[in-house]
Write a structure and sequence with these properties.
With 188 residues, the protein is α+β, with helices and mostly antiparallel strands. 29% of the residues lie in helices and 34% in strands. The chain has a single domain, classed as Cyclic Phosphodiesterase, Chain: A. The strands form three sheets. It has a five-stranded antiparallel β-sheet with strand order 6-2-1-9-10, with helices on one face. Strands 4-5-7 form a three-stranded antiparallel β-sheet, with helices on one face. Strands 3-8 form a two-stranded antiparallel sheet. The radius of gyration is 18 Å and the shape is globular.
Length: 188
């Protein structure tokens, strides 16, 4: 059957994130600004400060099924205290702020994996963190890491929910599709 305007089902991209409170975003932004000042003229990937949980794609016709599955997980999950402490590095090309206790975030990711049949090509974050700079060239990483491995950072917040972001096919910007609050309710 030929595809018509009314039968077209676009394939959208989705991201699930823990958004940081404004005061924590400000502290992270100050660190990123200082990092950028030290490396003028070099574009450094980092983006907005948040904790990436998962990314996937799915046809728009399944959007309600996706939001229902995620809403059920969020309803049953308890808000938790999160503490970002100091800095870490991965693969000698990224500098980030790690969680002091990553277990609550990993538990959330495990629960998200249980809903994976609803997603297409799901990628789950095995190392939850807030990135300062990614994709650094070796010379830039080595220079920067010498400073950051001794630098101190501390920020504590209550993670009260997650955001489902959507990028529609053919667009480059992301929009907030749904805020999913952690309610600590008994869900069957």
């Amino acid at each position: 059957m030929p595809e018509t305007l009314f039968s077209y089902d676009p394939l959208n991209e989705y991201r699930l994130i823990l958004d940081l409170p404004a005061d924590v975003k400000k502290k992270v932004a100050e660190v990123k600004t200082a990092f950028d000042q030290e490396h003028k003229g070099i574009v450094i990937a980092g983006g907005q400060p948040f904790v990436y949980l998962a990314a996937f794609s799915q046809n728009e016709s399944f959007e309600q099924e996706i939001t229902d599955a995620l809403y059920k997980i969020a309803l049953g999950f308890m808000p938790f205290k999160a503490h970002l402490k100091n800095f870490g590095q991965t693969d000698h090309n990224e500098i980030f702020m790690p969680f002091e206790d990553v277990k609550p975030v990993q538990l959330l990711i495990q629960q998200l994996k249980s809903a994976e049949p609803v997603f297409k090509n799901a990628k789950f974050n095995e190392l939850p963190r807030v990135s300062i700079a990614r994709g650094l060239q070796p010379f830039l990483f080595n220079k920067s890491w010498k400073v950051f491995e001794h630098r101190r950072f501390s920020a504590t917040f209550i993670a009260e929910g997650m955001l489902l972001l959507k990028r529609m096919e053919g667009f480059s910007s992301w929009q907030i599709l749904k805020r999913l609050g952690f309610e600590n309710m008994l869900v069957s």
